[in-house]
């Protein structure tokens, strides 16, 4: 399965395209797409201006980011990784 993700133009937050053609910050509200339908919906999202920037398809497995780029998408979803549990030397 695939879903469409982008960044919200106003604040850069990660957003997902819903089945209703809206954008949501919740991955569980993302429309799940297959094959040609995914490409067609992505083309629609790319043609819209003013809400989202840089829409693209991601793999979804078990309601989580999947595929080869799952780690990148998981970080985008949960926020940046900063700091360390170790004290600097």
Keywords:
alpha+beta; 89 residues; single chain; 2 helices; 25% helix; five-stranded antiparallel beta sheet
Total of helices:
2
User: Biggest sheet, strands in spatial order?
Assistant: 3-2-1-4-5
| CA radius of gyration | 15 Å
| Shape verdict | globular
Low-confidence stretches: none
Relative strand content: 25-35%
Q: End-to-end distance, in Å?
A: 45 Å
Number of strands: 5
What letter string, H or E per element, gives the SSE order?
EEEHEEH
Subunit arrangement of the protein: single chain
| Helix-strand makeup class | alpha+beta
Number of domains: 1
Sheet having the most strands: 5 strands, antiparallel
Mean pLDDT: 83
Helix content, binned percent: 10-25%
Can you give a write-up of this model?
- The protein has 2 helices and 5 strands, in the order βββαββα.
- The protein has 89 residues and is an alpha+beta fold.
- It has one domain.
- It has a 5-stranded antiparallel β-sheet with strand order 3-2-1-4-5, with helices on both faces.
- The radius of gyration is 15 Å and the shape is globular.
């Amino acid at each position: 399965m695939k879903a469409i993700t982008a960044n919200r133009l106003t604040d850069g937050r990660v957003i997902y395209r819903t089945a209703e053609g809206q954008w949501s910050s919740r991955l569980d509200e993302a429309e799940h797409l297959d094959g040609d339908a995914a490409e067609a919906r992505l083309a629609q999202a790319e043609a819209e201006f003013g809400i989202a920037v840089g829409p693209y398809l991601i793999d979804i497995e078990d309601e989580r980011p999947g595929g080869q780029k799952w780690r990148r998408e998981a970080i985008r979803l949960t926020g940046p990784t900063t700091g360390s549990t170790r004290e600097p030397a």
